[in-house]
Amino acid sequence: MPFTFVPGQFLNVAFGIGGARMNRSYSISSSPTQREYLDLTIKREPRGAVSRHVVDLLKVGDLIEAGGPVGKFTFDGTEAENIVLISAGVGVTPMVSICRYLTDRSWPGDIFFIYTCRTPADYILGKEMAALERSNPKLHVAVTMTKAEGTDWKGPRGRITKEFLAKTVPELTKRRVHICGPATMMDATKALLIELGVPPEQVKMELFGATKPAIAPAGTTAKPSATATGPTVTFSQNNKTAKIHDGQTILELSEELGIGIENSCRVGTCGVCKVKMTAGEVDQEVQDALDDDDKANGIILACQAKPKTEVTVEA
Ligand SMILES: Cc1cc2nc3c(=O)[nH]c(=O)nc-3n(C[C@H](O)[C@H](O)[C@H](O)COP(=O)(O)OP(=O)(O)OC[C@H]3O[C@@H](n4cnc5c(N)ncnc54)[C@H](O)[C@@H]3O)c2cc1C
Ligand code: FES
Fold it and tell me: CA-CA-CA-CA torsion for 165, 167, 169, 170, nearest 10 degrees?
């Protein structure tokens, strides 16, 4: 492979589907110690545009466009002496990369891998985790299934609870915790951890993106019904200016105007929607994809940016 990565990082991939360019992010599920190739593990969403394209249509030998690696939701064993990895559904992928890497490196710390899904058939990379557990005595795997009735699952059942966490991880309050999964699961789990006394700064999370696709794909010019009263945004490369609606992001306004700012996660994680702001000020709730250089150079995330003043962006 022509690059290295840190366990927990992801790639931004782009596909041309039905004449539209679509960007999505996928965590690398293999270990950086595997140098010949890398694995992306992609869950087919029943109505998903890109995941169905990948799972149903991509063939061996097809080329895909990918950028990266990117992401700060990483762990290579230098950040703490032990680690708790909690995930649900396809949020397991960065956790498996971390477990594979730490196992390959014979990392001496304890790794607590906690996972929840509906049934045994939904346990993504379950066989790989079972094999890792057999080969690494420092890896402690605890999986709980929420819809195991009628299956041969013999392990814990139900959602992740305070009792489950406290029983599974001794001295939990002293440990660093990573969580990845649906937004509701991550928020609920973080709240449980805080109730158990884990300091919030010890808890790291990564959101895998918006649960619903963009309301108005670029070029559809689907305009909200109310008149916009917010600050003016100028898209200098397109020579277009418009007032922003209350609560609207620069990305959403660009879509309304038919300006194609590329985007993927729409939650501030992937960095695909980075644009340069040459004038004005914005609020950005999540800035995970921006580094110090970006901030110093006026780069903003269009999917997060809500103008506080008149703004000009290079788009
Ligand atoms: C940092 C990061 C890492 C990620 N890592 C992974 C990974 O390792 N593996 C992985 O599988 N995914 C991962 N994702 C998620 C991935 O990027 C995509 O969001 C996911 O594959 C869905 O894309 P899609 O094009 O298939 O779905 P989209 O077309 O974008 O649809 C998104 C969701 O909306 C639903 N939907 C679509 N149309 C409708 C409709 N009309 N009405 C109601 N619902 C609808 C779909 O079923 C789907 O659940 C990651 C995301 C991020 C940000
Ligand atoms: S679209 Fe991913 S950070 Fe904005």
Answer: 140
In angstroms, what is the span from residue 14 Cα to ligand 2's centroid?
Answer: 13
Q: Is the pLDDT of residue 208 over 90?
A: no
> Any idea which fold 83-206 has?
Rossmann fold (3.40.50)
- Averaged over 250-256, what is the pLDDT? 95
CATH for 232-313, options being 3.40.50.970, 3.10.20.30, 3.40.190.10, 1.10.340.30: 3.10.20.30
Do 83 and 112 touch, CB atoms closer than 8 A?
Answer: yes
- Give the predicted TM-score (pTM) of the model: 0.91
pLDDT for the residue 211? 58
Q: What are 241's strand-pairing partners?
A: 234
15 lines ligand 1 (CB under 6 A): no
Assess whether pLDDT exceeds 60 at residue 300: yes
The finding on whether 59 has its CB within 6 A of some atom of ligand 1 is no
The answer on pLDDT for 73 being more than 50 is: yes
272-305 burial string, b = 16+ CB within 10 Å, else e? bbbbebeebebebeeebbbeeebeeeebbbbbbb
